[in-house]
């Protein structure tokens, strides 16, 4: 917690209030857009062109490479323990450990000579590939945080505590072409006696709202 709201600078972007994570409705995002310098993911099928982020919507050069800050709620939640999650807009990172290490060292390591390298390989070779979009980088919060290995581990452990302990079941899919057959069973010829008179709806409205 202290690292998150201190030296690691996570709260610069992952804070929706000023309550330091104790607020009931904390979403862990400020909903802004930034470019943190994520490398290009060449493993995406058909290897598409670099994702220009917000620029694709606004056409403003100062938005090139910027993507919306995601919430950190359930950042480690997965359908089963061995499920591999993908992080950042293009999924280049495959673990919280990898992305935390990137935030800590992105600007102090050498640039990898192989741009097709994976995050796991880059960490093993002590380098990082060039950013997917090398403009408008958010250097104020990424790159040289001077965190120790123990600090990185502690930060990952804290992020994992933001996971819900229960899951909400999604509602069933609405199928407009289906119906409840039990509601079709009725006798049109059967007569029903009126148990009580139905008063005029205008009188009802007048008595309720025209006092």
Automatic annotation (TrEMBL):
Keywords: Oxidoreductase, Signal. It comes from the Bacteria. InterPro entries: Cyt_c-like_dom_sf (IPR036909), Cytochrome_c_Peroxidase/MauG (IPR051395). The keyword Signal applies. The keyword Oxidoreductase applies. GO terms for molecular function: cytochrome-c peroxidase activity; electron transfer activity; heme binding. This is Methylamine utilization protein. It comes from Photobacterium frigidiphilum.
């Amino acid at each position: 917690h202290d690292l998150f709201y201190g030296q690691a600078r996570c709260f610069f972007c992952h804070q929706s209030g000023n309550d330091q994570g104790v607020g009931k409705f904390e979403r862990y995002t400020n909903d802004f857009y930034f470019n943190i310098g994520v490398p290009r993911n060449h493993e995406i099928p058909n290897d598409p062109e670099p994702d220009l982020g917000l620029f694709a919507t606004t056409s403003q050069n100062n938005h090139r490479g910027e993507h919306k800050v995601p919430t950190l709620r359930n950042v480690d939640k997965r359908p089963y323990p061995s499920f591999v999650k993908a992080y950042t807009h293009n999924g280049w990172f495959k673990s919280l450990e990898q992305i935390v290490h990137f935030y800590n060292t992105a600007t102090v390591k050498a640039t990898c000579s192989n741009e097709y390298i994976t995050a796991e390989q880059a960490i093993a070779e002590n380098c990082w590939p060039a950013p997917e979009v090398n403009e408008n980088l958010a250097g104020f919060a990424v790159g040289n945080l001077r965190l120790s290995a123990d600090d990185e581990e502690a930060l990952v452990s804290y992020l994992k505590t933001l996971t819900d302990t229960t899951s909400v079941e999604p509602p069933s899919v609405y199928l407009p072409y289906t119906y409840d057959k039990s509601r079709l069973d009725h006798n049109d010829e059967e007569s029903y006696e009126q148990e009580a008179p139905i008063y005029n709806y205008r009188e009802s409205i007048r008595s309720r709202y025209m006092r």
